[in-house]
Automatic annotation (TrEMBL), chain B:
Molecular function terms from GO: transmembrane transporter activity
Protein name, entry field: Autoinducer 2 import system permease protein LsrD
Domain of life: Bacteria
Subcellular compartments: Cell membrane
Bilayer topology annotation: Multi-pass membrane protein
Cross-referenced Pfam families: BPD_transp_2
Membrane-crossing segments per the record: 12-33, 53-84, 96-117, 163-183, 214-234, 254-284
Cellular component terms (Gene Ontology): plasma membrane
PANTHER family the UniProt entry points to: ABC TRANSPORTER PERMEASE PROTEIN YPHD-RELATED-RELATED, AUTOINDUCER 2 IMPORT SYSTEM PERMEASE PROTEIN LSRD
InterPro entries: ABC_transp_permease (IPR001851)
UniProt KW keywords: Cell inner membrane, Cell membrane, Membrane, Transmembrane, Transmembrane helix, Transport
């Protein structure tokens, strides 16, 4: 039996009188990946923050080895050998990789920070991880998102952690990057590190973990060895009921063309021609960097097309920026919900009505009588419309973003990674919602990295490769066919 | 991989010195066309003298701005410390060292109060330091109507001596600037100043003692303002309650730091850029004086320069972000 490195006993935590964790027990063992799952708002991140010393528990004990500890601040948890990769990115964009890795623990030599040691230490860890594409002296802001995740891991490792907790480390990753991260987790486990792994991607959970703990509404549900659980049973424990089919059936026929691109291009995109019709969901597939989000940004006018024609309802239209996009009935759920999608310090109400207030005029802009039904339609779980959005769990934040677009009843909706970081139950809600919107006549363009999701939801799939359309596939196509086109091999070679 | 490519990046610090050079050239031409010389012995002396005290205050201000804070109390604090210096010395040579130490101690305590109000009471820095500024003003207005105290002749050398066209006090500021640069860019606490300003929560979760770091920055900033007060006393021969506010050290120091590339939300800026900003402001003033320009126009130009600089840096950051 492996040693228990950290034990949580009866951890309880309330925010402003609302219980978020109710007596949670958890054991982390050396050389074991312990998965922590639960719906959005179940309290997973809060539990990790308690473990990190960022929140103090109201009751309960934390034992490191067999010694009871009390963390007054994150540095105490660090000193006890616990490192956390938080759900939100936790790097300083304008400092270098090495400076971020050693933040708070800078080595000092003769009164000065030893930059050479920092660079060398970072380099060593990057090499150990097989990541030689990252310069320790590069500014973090210049790295792509997937690489930043690597920096977070290096940061945790450099602290020589014996316990590593990761809160949805793959949420921002796709395809091969996820595989690399999973490999890394295995290697860390083999080194004898205890890993607490939080994820909504159940496939990873089953592949990586030896033990799974389920939380629901802040309460402990179960802790079982992974091999004793089936995915269906796990979902039932998380959601509290069997879920049934994840993807709703299509029940509408495509109508007239809402959005059409004719030979559209700009610096990153070449000669795009496709239609999106009322009532259909068109999937946009492609590898990271293939230009999927660039298509969305171009249609929305943030980085507009410089050649070709965009037609809305058959009329050639020039969209000059987000405001004109909104006025033309195009909604855009961005992939970075915290950065672009939400005013985190504002209430649920203000966020949900943000676009309406900004884009509409007169009485229509002030209307809020339908707020309740709006929030209900996206199934937001919040303490009330006045709660600040930053206190919502990740999944509920995403639902608010969806709601803010529905508030202006767009004709075309672009959704970029709409289920990033949200739980299965909420995913099902979002899928049903998108399907219902399509049935009501909305034209939907959907970008998603998780292929099962894209295949399950799309009526047609456009595959991008290097900024151009490599092909179109019908509903019911295979993951291999999509990957074939996405990697630049024709259909025939797959 | 081992091949390190170094591109010359146009950082705000580089920009500000290029702008300074351009300003010196244009200023020389304008003043020359008017029959004068900008950069003769007295011109250089003039620019450096104007830069000294503001430079000191601005260096300190940069440290708090870098942590994402602000100090609006520096102007009154400089006035207060000039009084502490001059009244403690009261013309006695023997009291020179105690006078300086007492002034610095008073300044440090005010900085400590600023820092604690911000970190412990969680007051917004703008409001907190404005409040402290008002308290200092109340004290000064109630107790002083004009200059008070006097410093011994020996101490006045600090204010007036020079080597060639370079005032000794300017060298002192340069020395202090170097020390603060080293502190902010080479020591662990210095790293933490930038980290806290970059993102306080990230710094905290990474194990940085954020409150302590903010308090340190405020004590440092206030000490710089206090030292400026000491030099004011040396220069004026007595304590001057409103010398700091008359020179507008509060807003001018912020303007200089921003000209030098500091961003008010924190995490960016530095001593080197700020000194460039101070020199630009001083050179502008000197050129305007030489040309006998209308004071109104003078303020307009300063305002335009400041806004243009901020807009330029913002554009620069945006273009780098999307690259
Ligand atoms: N600082 C805070 N103040 C008030 N409420 C909070 C705070 N942090 C979290 N909460 C609340 O605690 C609950 C649990 O949130 P938590 O982030 O732990 O959920 P989670 O399980 O990580 O969800 P997700 O899967 O969406 O990330 C949520 O209802 C959230 O609104
Ligand atoms: Mg979470």
């Amino acid at each position: 039996m492996n040693d228990v490195l950290v034990r949580l006993e009866g951890v309880t935590k309330s925010f402003l009188g609302v219980p978020v964790l109710r007596g949670i027990d958890l054991e982390l063992r050396a050389g074991e990946v312990h998965a922590l799952v639960g719906e959005n708002g179940a309290g997973k991140s809060t539990l990790l923050k308690v473990l990190a010393g960022a929140h103090r528990p109201d009751a309960g004990r934390i034992l490191v080895g067999d010694r009871e500890v009390s963390f007054a601040a994150p540095r105490d948890a660090q000193a006890a050998g616990i490192a956390i990769i938080h759900q939100e990115f936790n790097l300083l964009p304008h400092r270098t990789v090495a400076e971020n890795v050693y933040l708070g623990r800078e080595p000092v030599r003769r009164g000065q920070v030893d930059r050479r040691a920092m660079t060398a230490g970072t380099q060593r860890l990057l090499e150990w991880m097989g990541e030689d594409g990252i310069e320790p002296d590069a500014e973090v802001a210049r790295l792509p998102v997937a690489r930043r995740q690597v920096v977070e891991i290096v940061k945790a490792l450099s602290a020589d952690a014996k316990v590593l907790a990761m809160d949805e480390p793959t949420a921002a990753l796709a395809g091969s990057e996820v595989d690399r991260l999973c490999d890394l987790v295995r290697r860390l486990r083999e080194r004898g590190i205890a890993i607490l792994y939080v994820s909504h991607r159940l496939r990873e959970v089953f592949e990586l973990s030896q033990r799974i703990t389920v939380l629901k509404d802040g309460a402990f549900v179960s802790c079982s060895p992974t091999e004793d659980l089936s995915p269906g049973e796990l979902v039932r424990q998380m959601v509290g009921r069997p879920l049934g089919t994840l993807y709703p059936a299509r029940d509408s026929d495509p109508g007239e063309v809402r959005l059409a691109l004719r030979g559209a291009g700009n610096g990153r995109l070449r000669d795009l021609s496709f239609d999106v019709r009322a009532g259909e969901i068109v999937g946009l597939a492609g590898l990271q960097g293939s230009g999927r989000s660039a298509v969305a940004r171009a249609i929305w006018g943030v980085e507009p097309f410089t050649s070709g024609v965009v037609e809305l309802d058959g009329e050639p239209t020039t969209i000059t920026g987000p405001r004109s996009a909104v006025r033309n009935g195009i909604g855009y759920v961005t992939e970075d919900r915290q950065g672009d999608g939400l005013a985190l310090r504002q209430s649920v109400r203000d966020n949900a009505l943000l676009v309406r207030r900004a884009a509409l005029r007169g009485a229509a802009a002030r209307r809020d009588s339908d707020l309740g039904s709006l929030l209900e339609s996206v199934a937001v779980v919040a303490r009330g419309p006045d709660q600040e959005v930053r206190y919502l769990s990740g999944g509920n934040q995403q639902k608010v973003v969806l709601g803010k677009w529905l508030a202006v009843s767009p004709r075309i909706l672009i959704v970029d990674e709409p289920t990033r970081g949200i739980d299965v139950g909420a995913k099902q809600t979002v899928y049903r919602l998108l399907r219902k919107l399509a049935a009501d006549g909305l034209a939907i363009l959907m970008i998603a990295s998780e292929l099962p999701e894209l295949l399950g939801m799309s009526d047609r799939i456009l595959v991008l490769h290097n900024g151009a359309i490599a092909g179109e596939l019908p509903a019911g196509t295979s993951e291999e066919a999509v990957m074939g086109l996405a990697t630049g091999h024709g259909l025939g070679e797959v | 991989m081992t091949l390190v490519r170094r591109r010359l990046t146009i950082t705000p610090t580089v920009t500000v010195y290029l702008a300074l050079a351009a300003l010196l050239v244009i200023g020389s031409i304008l003043v020359g066309a008017n029959g004068g010389v900008l950069l003769d012995q007295s011109g250089i002396l003039n620019i450096l003298t104007r830069s000294t005290l503001l430079g000191l205050v601005a260096i300190g201000q940069t440290m708090v701005i870098v942590t994402g804070s602000l100090d609006l109390s520096v102007a009154y604090l400089a006035g207060l410390c000039s009084l502490v210096t001059a009244e403690t010395m009261a013309g006695r040579t023997s009291m020179m060292v105690p006078g300086v130490l007492l002034a610095l101690a008073v300044a440090a305590v005010v900085g400590l109060i600023n820092g604690l109000v911000i970190t412990v009471l969680k007051a917004n820095a703008f409001i907190a330091t404005l409040g402290v500024a008002l308290i200092l003003r109340g004290y000064l207005e109630h107790n002083y109507t004009g200059p008070a105290g006097s410093v011994p002749r020996a101490f006045q050398h600090l204010g007036y001596d020079r080597i060639g066209p370079v005032p000794v006090s300017a060298l002192l500021v340069l020395l202090i600037g170097t020390a603060v640069w080293w502190f902010s860019r080479r020591t662990r606490t210095g790293y933490h100043l930038y980290a806290v300003g970059g993102d306080t929560e990230v710094a905290r979760l990474s194990g940085v003692r954020t409150s302590r770091t903010i308090v340190t920055a405020h004590v440092l900033c206030a000490s710089m303002a206090g030292l400026a007060g000491v030099l004011l006393a040396a220069r004026l021969g007595s304590g001057a309650p409103y010398a700091g506010t008359d020179a507008g050290y509060d807003l001018e120091s912020i303007a200089a730091a921003v000209l030098g590339g500091a961003v008010l939300t924190g995490g960016r800026g530095g001593v080197v850029g700020t000194i460039g900003g101070v020199l630009i402001l001083a050179t502008l003033d000197t050129v305007f004086d030489d040309l006998a320009v209308d004071p109104f126009l003078k303020d307009v130009v300063r305002g335009v320069v400041l806004v243009a600089a901020v807009a330029l840096y913002a554009r620069h950051r945006l273009s780098r972000r999307s690259s």
